[in-house]
Amino acid sequence: MEPGANVSAVCRELGVSRKTGYKWLARYRTMGLEGLADMSRRPHRSLHATSGEVVLRVIELRRAHPRWGPKKIVALLAREGLPKVPSVRTVARILERAGEPPARRRARASTNVPREAPRVSAELPNDVWSVDFKGWWKTKDGRRAEPLTVRDGASRFVLCAHLVQGTRTTEVRSVFERLFEQHGLPRAIQVDNGTPFASTRARGGLTRLSAWWVSLGIRVVRSRPAHPQDNGAHERMHVDMHFDVERHRADTLEQQQDALDRWRAEFNAVRPHEALGMRTPSEVYRKSPRPYRGEREPHYAANALVRAVAANGRVALGSQGSVFISQALHGWRVALEPLANDSYRVWFFEMDLGVVSDEQFGGSRRRTVA
């Protein structure tokens, strides 16, 4: 502020822009030394601010219905005819700030879920592949981008980061067919308990997709429900994808896929990994020695009853009736190994699906899988 001072030269000397320099000068002129203190960057007003009446109504609804989540509360607010209904995320923030506990979903009863952390070791490339869907986001043109990601456990090599239209088995299977043709077969695939990889309601947790993997000679390893740490390395890779790709949304899905391809190429061939001795995944990964040749022919014990699974998931036992196994196995053959007490152990390739036993029910005989 000295007479004749060159503001531009002073800003260059201090390493700040002229805009910043003039901002501090203006504050000093209007506020004195107090104006040189850091101030809050919070805007004076927010276009998305929620009125106090709506906040109170949200809290009232939650306390009236403690098990209802933000989606149901938003639906009620819309039904009440409010001129401006807050979003689900806004309602969730209101409840969080008010100290309201999140609504807990009632767990569906099922005995067919993993109780312990999966025991799986990835010593060599293709020992274990992990697969999951990265949480979706929208491109700038409003289309949903949901990557299907596949990663090799030993080398950290990302085999796939492909945008899919949904979780349909046919689309996901086509992606894996291309991966198997290009890279060969892994010994195991680690999945969570979501569609289309696994089902907590089906025998062995099998779906059409995971049953196909078993028919190829691939072991299916399931993580425990609500335990993302069981597949922590894959989740960590998703964090990298979030910051490197998702935060920089593309204009279109096609451009978003191009961005994912560039990210995958850099992750695999450029970025060094400390766990790999600062090598890149591409330097460690090798194609699997197990080529993809389609489904195997099952070989069961000579004393087993081999039956094809019908579309309704049942297998016929002649005059003894039929037994329900799993609709996911429609078209495949299973083996029923005779045991004591007129019971059978059910096998799908090398996979034990439990025991079939006789029961008396309502005066008629039926068979169930234990």
Description:
- This protein is of the alpha+beta class and about 375 residues long.
- It folds into 4 domains: about 10-35, no CATH class; about 50-95, Arc Repressor Mutant, subunit A, CATH 1.10.10; about 130-285, Ribonuclease H-like superfamily/Ribonuclease H (Nucleotidyltransferase, domain 5, 2-Layer Sandwich), CATH 3.30.420.10; about 305-370, no CATH class.
- Helix content is about 30%, strand content about 20%.
- The strands form 3 sheets. Strands 1, 2, 3, 4, 5 and 6 form a 6-stranded mixed sheet that branches.
- Strand 5, helix 7 (about 210-215) and strand 6 (about 220) form a beta-alpha-beta unit.
- The model is unreliable at about 360-365 (pLDDT under 50).
